[in-house]
């Protein structure tokens, strides 16, 4: 539950920063060298939307066992990790990774890859938590006294 609240706050800050600097987001995403033009704009809309929906869900329902917010979070984490790792591997110089739009700008350096790896680790922890929650609430594990004989 605490992980969901912390990630909800982080994603809310990301979505707000990116939305507030939406005019710059397509250019920031284009700098990664995978998209341009309308595709960069569509990617910006998709990322901001997924971050915002997931943030609201994690903050409003931190004990939820729904898979949708975990899928959205995982998608966001994977997209940012792919963008950063391929740009870093190609030696692209980015003055702003874009995680918070034009706010809290940080250049693409090795530590951004560590941050992205942590986001992926958190996705794994969320999936593990869902799996455990479903195992403990599964009808197969809840036996009546007659079934135990």
How would you characterize the overall build of this protein?
- This protein has 149 residues and is mainly α.
- Helix content is 65%, strand content 0%.
- The chain is built from five helices and no strands.
- Helix 4 packs antiparallel against helix 5.
Fold topology:
Layout: H1 2-20, H2 25-30, H3 38-60, H4 68-89, H5 110-136
Helix pairs in contact: 1-3, 3-4, 4-5
Task: List its traits.
149 residues; 5 helices; mainly alpha; 65% helix
Distance from N terminus to C terminus (CA atoms, Å) equals 36 Å
H/E element sequence? HHHHH
Strand segment tally: 0
Based on CA atoms alone, the radius of gyration comes out at: 18 Å
* Oligomeric state as shown: single chain
Compute the number of helices: 5
Largest sheet: number of strands, sense, barrel closure? none
Q: Would you tell me the structural class of the helices and strands? A: mainly alpha
Low-confidence stretches: none
State the helicity in percent bands: 55-70%
The amount of beta strand, in percent, is under 5%
Which geometry do the CA atoms define? globular
Mean pLDDT: 92
Summarize the model shown.
By secondary structure, this protein is mainly alpha-helical.
């Amino acid at each position: 539950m605490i992980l969901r609240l912390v990630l909800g706050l982080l994603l809310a800050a990301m979505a707000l920063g990116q939305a507030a600097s939406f005019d710059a987001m397509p250019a920031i995403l284009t700098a990664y060298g995978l998209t341009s033009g309308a595709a960069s704009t569509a990617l910006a809309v998709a990322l901001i939307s997924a971050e915002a929906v997931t943030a609201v869900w994690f903050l409003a329902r931190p004990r939820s066992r729904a898979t949708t917010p975990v899928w959205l979070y995982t998608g966001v984490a994977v997209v940012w990790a792919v963008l950063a790792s391929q740009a870093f591997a190609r030696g692209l110089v980015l003055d702003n990774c874009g995680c918070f739009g034009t706010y809290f700008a940080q250049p693409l350096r090795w530590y951004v890859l560590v941050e992205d790896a942590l986001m992926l680790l958190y996705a794994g922890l969320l999936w593990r938590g869902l799996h455990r929650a479903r195992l403990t609430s599964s009808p197969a594990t809840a036996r009546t006294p007659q079934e135990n004989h």
